[in-house]
Amino acid sequence: xxxxxxxxxxxxxxxxxxxxLVAAARLAEGGAKVCVLAKGVGSTHLAAGTIDVLGYAxxxxxxxxxxxxxxxxxxxxxxxALLGADAVAEALEWFSARVEAGPLPGYRYVGGLERNYLxxxxxxxxxxxxxxxxxxAAGDARERTAVTVVGTRVLRDFHASLCAANLxxxxxxxxxxxxxxxxxxxxxxxxxxxxRFDDPAWRAAFAARLALVLGAEERVAFPAxxxxxxxxxxxxxxxxxxxxxxxxxxxLPPSVPGMRLFEVLRAALRGAGGRLVLGxxxxxxxxxxxxxxxVRAHAAGHDVRYMAPSFVLATGGFGSGAIEVDSRWATRxxxxxxxxxxxxxxxxxxxxxxYLDEQPMARVGVAVDAHLRAEGAENVVVAGAALPGAIPWRxxxxxxxxxxxxxxxxxxxxxxxxxxxxxxxx
Amino acid sequence: MSDAVLHELLRGxxxxxxxxxxxxxxxxxxxxxxxFPGPKYAGPQAERYRVADQPSNEWSVDYCSGCGICTQVxxxxxxxxxxxxxxxxxxxxxxxxxxxxxxxxxxxxxxxxGTPAAPLANLxxxxxxxxxxxxxLLGVHRNAPAPRFAGRRFSRWARKHxxxxxxxxxxxxxxxxxxxxxxxxxxxxxxxxxxxEHNGFAVQVPKQDxxxxxxxxxxxxxxxxxxxxxxxxxxAPHVRDDDTIIVGxxxxxxxxxxxxxxxILGLEDDPDLKLVSxxxxxxxxxxxxxxxxxxLRTDFQPVNETIAYHAPCxxxxxxxxxxxxxxxxxxxxxxxxxxxxxxxxxxxxxxLKVEKYPIAMDVGRSLFDQVRASGAATxxxxxxxxxxxxxxxxxxxxxxxxDFLHRAYGL
Lengths: 426, 411
Known about the structure:
heterodimer; A: alpha/beta; 11 helices; B: alpha/beta; 4-stranded parallel sheet; 22 helices
């Protein structure tokens, strides 16, 4: 018999966003032989890099831990109702520990479920978030001290004056300053600047020029470009040089804090021996008696059949194309064709005319049981934006759901494996 | 398939681009030089302004090194690198191909010329005045890494080599060694054969030639097509039965056979190439799959060393992860440090060109720094041109990962 590209794992995770990487890293740490298959890099590079657990329910949330419980009671179909507040807390703790043990020296996240931070966005609007990089924490708008917002003309995606003007609307004394920097290209992005800030000599020169235009403001806001390789070092160095508290404001993609998050989770996965296969799209599944026994993924030249007793589906929602709706309103999960929940019945409207209203399709996700197992495929556990019942962009809950459900999905798989092992030995 | 049809197929993928910039974060070239504006600009964005029968008015796409990382990381399936390769081909056809690109893209010619006169050829390649002359006359950078001719050809060794007597009926396997093994590193080929025979394979080495990748990456598509089809015709007859596979140790050349020739050169319909493409394995991919099936011998002796491992961009284009890492982890005593910097900069022949050498060295810098910081004495890497560049950039020897398996087997 010939070799026909077939590989065996204890668990295969589909998707390399936050949920998939968290699930895979925890599975690998739990001793499972795990492989992540992803069409490309996931959501990390596009998001702010903060872990927003619950920002609005529907009013702005100050105590996310408390509000989680209320939300779960009100909406039993919400992912947080399936997960429970304690499990969310445990997952956040696990996540924070991985950041601290990760490849970025000294970098850490602060906060938790007690209080939400209120952090400015790139346009100076305030946004609640539970667990944030230390480099962003001083931006908390619950504190009213004055802020200097630093911008530079070459970063086209961050306008200090707009940001400062909106912060003023929120009663924070904010003043924009522009620092001229010389770059070789007219349209530097956040990543290019982050690499500059990693360079100590360049950073020192920048800080010296900035110090000349700083006023009496206690805090200095930067776009989130304070280093990719050593963000803690860059941030601490700037606080020291400027003699003020410094914080980052997330920018438009590419998100430098999101790239750091990817590196942290990638390192956790690789450090525990997990495999990461990028560029390999899962195109079909082989099923037997209500179970998925293998998925087929594109590789160069030939497809590879990945066999495993358990799969984690962490492919995202409408945004990533994991859930699709076609021109005839047919809605489907595009990777394993699993049954969906939350699709409006035939004849009822799919969309409302006002974009930001609660859209009827918004809560669509893969139908799961209380253990996140997919209906119709009992060994597929679902995590992240593929879950039904949440509207992450209204709730400010996307990363919280991703981390907690990824963590939980790994727990479900590990428990099943140890039960199977116990049965085998008995 | 005509160029026009191929072009439309690749082009169709650009509508999936959501401008997320993930490719921009991963591009090794645009992150170090403003001469290449980045995969998103040069690919899906600029493509909208390229009209079939209009002349090309951009030179920047020639600065894309063709490493393919953009396509790999794209979460929407846009064929960014492939679109850029097409644009580069159009540019080259219109502006003319420099003599240099016609020479350095033909490893077979160079190998045949250099091998009989190896001592003289090697001396010339390290002789400063000759290199300066080469830079002035041809545009090959004077400091660019140049391999040494072995002075013997792997295929001659293979013809004389007699396999050890096997107690069981061996499985047939076809070995595609590539030009690097043939002319520069025949010892690598000997190790591949030894490892395969140790694992019960009967290795066939058909007469073979270049895969055409250097021609393709320099935008010389017509010549690249002829070259890769000649190779496909040479290999296909050996794998027409149901289960014989082809294995290669030159990861960029196996990728050319598996995917790039079909996708970039539009040779999807050629039956020989299709067969060869489906049957081709990279050596580490094959050995790890054997291990997964419990069929790889693991009678490894300890190798007490700390090494660095760099996965070349082209290896990543196989979309199989990093099998070499897991294979090397089977060797007792061997500590392997995974390098996370993306690219060594060379991209085949890109870093040889005088106008691109400094860019290639800037691209490689973060890898070179990581290697130095790792404390590793040796760097394992699956591609020969990357190995030469890594040695050039770090002053450390660089070998194929299978070297360590060969040592651990005690062969």
